[in-house]
Specification:
This protein is α+β, with helices and mostly antiparallel strands. The protein has helices at 5-11, 18-21, 45-58, 112-121, 137-142, 150-153, 226-229, 263-281, 285-288, 303-309, 335-348, 362-386, 402-413, 440-459, 478-481, 484-497; strands at residues 13-15, 38-41, 62-65, 81-84, 91-96, 102-107, 124-125, 160-166, 172-176, 187-191, 197-201, 238-248, 252-260, 295-302, 322-330, 357-359, 391-392, 419-425, 430-436. The longest helix has 25 residues, at 362-386. The radius of gyration is 23 Å and the shape is globular.
C-alpha cells in the first residue's frame, strides 16, 4: 500500500515559523529577501518524490537546500517550499577494489569533510576539494564543485559513478555511468519505471575549451546522461544519493609558499610547472611514480593579497610582489629528488627561495594551508566593516590567454582607488578577482568593471563561471556566453524534466524562459 502525499508530509519534519526557517533562506551570497512557506526535511527518496509530485500539481516552487555554502544564491528561495537535505546524512558504504582505489555510496546531505575523513581512514582519497568543506555532497554534485586539487584530479564530475535523483514529477531515477547516452543528434530518452518516457534535446552550444567550467548545462557529443545532472544546480532534479570513485590515498606530499619579486619570474615559474605537470600525466605510470614534477595544486596570491596577509603573517617578505602555493604528492623514495626538482625550478625563475616556506610534515603543511585560507577570512572582516558585498570573478580562460587576461584585470584596477585582491587557481587559469567596495558608489563601479571582465573572458574563449555556478546572481551574465536561442534550448531541456517549472526557479535563467 502506498501512502498518500498528505500523510507522508505530516510524518516528515516540517518547519514553518520564521525563526525556525530563517537559516534556510540565505547562503554565502548574502542575497537578501529569501522567503518560503515552509521547510521540509525528507529522509528518503520517496519522501522527496512525494513532496515534488504534489508541488508539481500545485505549481508550487521548490528550492533545494544544501549546507548554504554556495556564493551565487542558488539556495535562496523566493516563495514556495524548501527541501532541506540535512537528514539525508548517511555514508552507506565504502569498499576497496583490486587496483588500490574503491567506491563510496553516500546520501546527499553528508558533509564533504566527513566523507573525506571516512575514506582517508580506509587508506583512500576522494579528490574534490572546494575551499569550504562543510558543504554537502549533493551540493558538490549539483555544482560540479572543484578546488585547488582540481589542477591534478579534475572536478567532481570525474568521480561520480552513479546518482539517485528524484524528478519534479515525483519519479525516482537511478543512473549509472555508462548505461545511458545521448544519441549523435543530441537527443536523450529515459524510460521511467512508470513506463513514461522523457524525451529531451541537448542545447547546441559548445563548451569553452577550459579545464574548469560551471556555466549552464553540460553538453558533449553522445554524452553520458548522468553528466546532465552534475552541475545542473538543482534545476533538473533533486540528488538523493551518490556513488563516487575513490583513489589510493597518497603516502605523503610536499608543499610550499614561494615568493617572487617580479611578476615575470612568477608567471614563468607557473608556466613551466603547469607544462611539466600536464606532460608528466600523459606519460606511463612508471614515470609518474618516479621523481617527475607533477603539481596537484598551483595557487596564486598577488601583491594586494600579500598586503592583506601581512596583517597576520609578518614573515611575508617585503620584497614579495606575488606568491605561489604548490603541492606535490610524494613517497619516501622520491621526496628528496622531488624537492631538488622544485628548488631547481625556483632558482631558474629567480624566486625568493631563502624567504619562501616549505613543508613535508603534517604540522608544517597545516600551517601552509592555514595561510592559504586566511585571505578570505581577512576580506570578510573588510566586508563586515564597510557593510558591502564583494564583487568576485570566477572566470577561467584557455592556457594561451591567461597572461593577457591577468594583465587586463590588473590594468583595469591598478591606479584607481578601488581596493582589490587577485588570488586562486592559477594552474587552471582561474583566479578570483575580488573587488572590495567601501560604499554604494564604489559597488556600482565594481559591477561595471566586473561586466568588462566577463566580456573579455568570453571574447578569448573562456567561461564566466569556472566553479561557483550561475545561480540567481549570475544568470543575466549567461547572456554574454550563450545566445538567446541557446538559452531557450536550455529552458526547453529543463521543461522536459520539470514540466511545471517548479525546481530552482530563478537559477541559471529567468522565469520568463519557462
Amino acid at each position: 500500500m502506498f501512502s498518500s502525499v498528505s500523510s507522508v508530509v505530516q510524518l516528515m519534519l516540517t518547519k514553518t515559523q520564521p525563526d525556525e526557517i530563517q537559516d534556510f533562506l540565505s547562503d554565502a551570497s548574502y542575497l537578501r529577501g529569501g522567503n518560503a512557506a515552509r521547510v521540509v526535511f525528507p529522509e528518503s527518496a520517496e519522501d522527496i518524490a512525494d513532496v515534488l509530485s504534489k508541488a508539481s500539481k500545485d505549481r508550487t516552487p521548490v528550492t533545494v537546500s544544501g549546507a548554504g555554502t554556495g556564493t551565487v544564491a542558488g539556495r535562496v528561495p523566493f516563495g514556495g517550499i524548501v527541501i532541506a537535505t540535512d537528514k539525508l546524512n548517511h555514508i552507506k558504504q565504502i569498499t576497496h577494489d583490486k587496483q588500490g582505489g574503491g567506491r563510496a555510496i553516500a546520501e546527499a546531505g553528508v558533509i564533504l569533510r566527513d566523507l573525506q575523513r571516512a575514506v582517508e581512514a580506509e587508506g583512500l582519497l576522494y579528490p574534490p576539494d572546494p575551499t569550504e568543506r562543510s558543504c554537502f555532497l549533493g551540493g558538490t554534485v549539483a555544482t560540479n564543485a572543484s578546488g585547488s586539487r582540481t589542477f591534478k584530479y579534475g572536478p567532481t564530475r570525474k568521480y561520480v559513478e552513479r546518482l539517485k535523483v528524484a524528478l519534479a514529477t515525483g519519479e525516482v531515477v537511478d543512473l549509472r555511468r555508462g548505461e545511458l547516452h545521448a544519441d549523435a543528434q543530441g537527443r536523450i530518452r529515459i524510460t521511467l519505471s512508470s513506463g513514461r518516457e522523457i524525451k529531451a534535446q541537448l542545447p547546441t552550444y559548445r563548451m569553452p575549451e577550459v579545464r574548469k567550467h560551471a556555466s549552464g548545462y553540460y553538453v558533449a557529443p553522445e554524452m553520458d546522461v548522468l553528466d546532465l545532472f552534475i552541475g545542473s544546480e538543482g534545476t533538473l532534479g533533486v540528488i538523493v544519493e551518490v556513488e563516487v570513485k575513490l583513489l589510493p590515498r597518497p603516502e605523503g606530499f610536499l608543499s610550499g609558499v614561494v615568493f617572487f619579486d617580479s611578476e615575470e619570474g612568477l608567471l614563468a615559474f607557473v608556466r613551466e610547472a603547469r607544462e611539466r605537470s600536464l606532460a608528466n600525466r600523459s606519460t606511463s605510470p612508471t614515470v609518474r611514480e618516479g621523481s617527475a614534477l607533477d603539481a596537484r595544486a598551483l595557487e596564486y596570491f598577488d601583491s594586494e593579497s600579500l598586503g592583506f596577509l601581512r596583517q597576520k603573517y609578518s614573515t611575508v617578505p617585503d620584497a614579495g610582489i606575488g606568491a605561489i602555493f604548490f603541492e606535490q604528492e610524494t613517497t619516501a623514495a622520491n621526496e628528496e629528488p622531488l624537492m631538488t626538482e622544485w628548488l631547481g625550478l625556483l632558482e631558474r625563475h629567480h624566486a625568493l627561495a631563502d624567504e619562501s616556506w616549505f613543508a613535508t610534515n603534517e604540522q608544517d603543511q597545516a600551517r601552509l594551508r592555514e595561510f592559504r585560507h586566511a585571505l578570505p577570512v581577512l576580506m570578510n572582516e573588510w566586508f563586515a566593516r564597510y557593510r558591502q558585498r564583494k564583487v568576485s570573478t570566477d572566470m577561467a580562460v584557455p592556457d594561451k590567454e591567461f597572461a593577457g587576461m591577468l594583465k587586463f584585470y590588473q590594468d583595469s584596477l591598478r591606479g584607481g582607488d578601488l581596493r582589490f585582491t587577485i588570488f586562486g587557481h592559477i594552474g587552471d587559469n582561474h583566479v578570483h578577482v575580488n573587488i572590495l567596495p567601501r560604499d554604494d558608489l564604489e559597488a556600482a563601479r565594481a559591477r561595471e568593471i566586473y561586466l568588462k571582465f566577463i566580456r573579455r573572458a568570453v571574447a578569448v574563449g573562456g567561461t564566466i563561471s569556472a566553479e561557483h555556478g550561475i545561480g540567481k546572481l549570475k544568470r543575466e551574465y549567461l547572456r554574454e556566453l550563450y545566445s538567446e536561442e541557446q538559452l531557450r534550448e536550455m529552458a526547453a531541456l529543463k521543461r522536459a524534466f520539470d514540466p511545471a517549472g517548479i525546481l530552482g526557479r530563478g537559477n541559471m535563467f529567468a522565469e520568463d524562459y519557462l
